[in-house]
Write a structure and sequence with these properties.
Two copies of one chain form a homodimer.
Chain A (H helix, E strand, L loop, with lengths): L15 H15 L6 E2 L11 H13 L16 H11 L8 E4 L2 H7 L10 E5 L4 H9 L15 E4 L17 E5 L11 H14 L2 E5 L24 E6 L12 E4 L5 E4 L2 E4 H12 L5 H8 L4 H28 L3 E3 L5 E5 L6 H12 L1 E2 L1 E2 L10 E5 L4 H14 L1
Parallel strand pairs in A: 1-13, 3-4, 3-5, 5-6, 6-7
Antiparallel strand pairs in A: 2-8, 7-8, 9-10, 11-12, 12-15, 14-15
Helix pairs in contact in A: 2-8, 3-8, 4-5, 9-11
Chain lengths: 403, 403
């Protein structure tokens, strides 16, 4: 008799994004004439850059030509892309340490697999739900507690009080999920915070999985990569993305850095984490679509780099408008400087979902309920700057009416 | 201290394909003037069909245009593709039961995850290595035995004696991996065989994961889908692919059918396997690249369907030439009628790897060692018909010299 992975049943409710979709759909049914503004999205509004589109269509044509057609590519990604990434952004690494994947989301979900189920997991809180959920699904947690948190998982709170810079765990942990800039708070981890965590990991032989999907949005002097911190390559894996910097969310391409330096002592011997991840990638995946990798490699040209900078400027401007606009109405807001997200406190005694629903129903603005990103997000909603200027202006107008 | 998933260390040697690559590279170094013929590949030689390339480039252009740009798509795939698949090939299912993924390989690797680690796994042998390897990595096996098989896994032998039609397990099993047409034997499972397995699964509340990646190559009256068998939707998941039928290996797109009918009784309640897989897909993936899904949907047109039939004819012709050619030289060969693979017995007392190396060194033909697909493949090598006619002719000439 087939038995199920009952760890899945520990998961609370449905995943966040489908739940949002459901509520928005219901409200649209209820108020068919309302004009909804979507300030909840994680998709850029800018299309692919012209030279990226050109590379994508050219590679697509190659696939239709007998002489230039390509079948299976290397599981870890084409050398042309891995080399370009190293040459532009990671000169201290070898192309061999770069793994191309079809999205940082998938890598963030799958990296836990190469580690034992016995490891104790710590996560930044609030955070992108996938860190916790995939560890729950694998069986590294106890059931959901009444607090809304999972037993056995260590939560590293990012609060107003600590400036959204998490404290070190005060219990033993083995695997830490950090994210800078953090989604949803929109705040980057400072050099001091990252240094403390790297030192902690080094001292405790722990490993950090660092989600840097939003690094290109940083405008402050916060580190853009955990590898700017001394010794980080001994303890950290970093996941990067083209989804936000270059509008690749619908194309699917990203990369993960697994340093050769990263070693684990287990079962009486020293092991390479790189070798383990390579084995997983070689066994379970067949590489990323060739035209998509060609599109990504077009980002590593003068034109591509300039286009990224231009796009970042556009979003930074919008985030600033939203941040200062909400502030001037009287909201307590954070983030927006190093990320396209604004983290906004709900009115006193109003919960995240309650405020989300209220805003949706009354002024038809779609946001994200902070608690969807963990209990640490309760009492907040998240705004996204991935919206057109007129939508942002209109959002601010509507919130003014609400105040 | 981080602990590793030591199940990975149970895996024998390196994955098959990188091992082949390594040996071929070494031989090319050793014999730099030799002309190598690759009869080992799993890649089609035909480029993308013209209407597929057109759809791919058109959708690529859409991504570069602000009005038609798309970000994240639905995790389970776009409705336009799911609907087309159902309308053309699976009229008894709803689009909701079709999950688009970035390759059958990934789904075949990941499906095990929704089932308990306690399940006993049975696999067709020889078979595509991923069925066994991903279950070993997850922890559903004991260590590798001296026989070259993993303890705790039940192997369903496909032999010359049983016409490559596996017998039912004679012990208790929960999860069965079948594949028809089977890679590497090149033989499709008969209606009788599949019926026996469906009945077995139904009686024992077991689940079948059926790999039908090569169904479009079937020319005999063998079933093209396990769902041709009565009650199969109560017990089976089927994984399909565009990689072989339409040259999508380098594009990455496939689909998996998880019927709503498929229910599991566990922990005192009846559960939907569809709900569990949907949860995994929604949590861990972000859907397949939009231009790639548009390319796939172009297969479901009159032109696309005709192109598949034409491609299948080309490969069937080549497989036949290879099959009868090798036979006429004196080799004992199977397969080739329902699949692009020829399963060829090695000379008496010569092992798979030994014959692979011998052929590589002496006549510079790259094949696949049967034992790479499991102990059931020992004593065979596999030829692929994914080669040009002149390469197939030249291969036969060289084997004649060897005889």
């Amino acid at each position: 008799m087939t038995k199920l992975n009952l760890n899945y049943h520990k998961l609370s409710g449905r995943p966040l994004f489908p739940e949002i979709e459901k509520r928005v759909e219901a409200m649209k049914q209820k108020q068919p004439h309302a004009v909804f503004l979507n300030l909840g999205v994680e998709n850029g509004t800018q299309p692919l850059f012209p030279n990226v589109t050109a590379a994508l269509t050219a590679a697509s044509s190659e696939m239709g030509n007998k002489e230039t057609f390509r079948g299976y590519g290397p599981c870890e990604g084409y050398q042309f892309l891995r080399k370009a990434i190293v040459a532009h952004d990671h000169k201290d690494f070898s192309p061999d340490e770069i793994f191309i994947s079809d999205g940082s989301h998938a890598d963030l979900a799958d990296l836990q697999e190469i580690f034992s189920l016995e490891n104790r997991v710590a996560v930044i809180d609030p955070a992108y739900p996938i860190y916790v959920e995939t560890n729950v699904m694998a069986g590294r947690s106890r059931p959901l507690l009444k607090t809304g948190r999972y037993g056995g998982i260590v939560y590293l709170s990012c609060t107003e009080e600590n400036g959204f810079q998490p404290e070190l765990p005060n219990v033993h942990v083995d695997l830490l999920y950090l994210s800078s800039p953090n989604n949803p708070t929109g705040v980057a981890l400072s050099r001091e915070t990252l240094t403390r965590f790297v030192q902690f990991a080094k001292k405790n032989n722990a490993i950090i999985i660092h989600d840097a999907a939003y690094e290109s949005f940083i405008t402050s002097d916060a580190p853009r990569s955990i590898y700017e911190i001394e010794n980080a390559r001994d303890v950290a894996i970093e996941v990067r993305s083209f989804s936000k910097s270059a509008g690749f969310a619908g194309l699917r391409c990203s990369y993960t850095i697994v340093p050769h330096h990263l070693k684990v002592y287990d079962a009486g011997a020293l092991h390479s984490v790189h070798a383990l991840w390579k084995r997983r990638v070689e066994t379970k995946t067949c590489g990323v679509s060739y035209p998509i990798q060609k599109a990504a490699s077009a980002l590593y040209t003068r034109e591509g780099q300039q286009a990224i900078r231009d796009a970042m400027k556009i979003y930074a401007e919008r985030a600033k408008t939203l941040l200062y606009g909400l502030k001037s109405i009287g909201y307590t807001v954070y983030g927006g400087i190093d990320a396209p997200y604004i983290w906004c406190k709900t009115p006193p005694k109003v919960g995240s979902w309650e405020f989300f629903d209220f805003v949706l129903e009354n002024i038809h603005v779609i946001t994200m309920p902070g608690v969807g990103f963990g209990q640490g997000g309760e009492g907040y909603i998240r705004f996204s700057a991935f919206a057109e200027p007129h939508e942002i202006q209109e959002t601010l107008e509507r919130f003014k009416r609400l105040a």
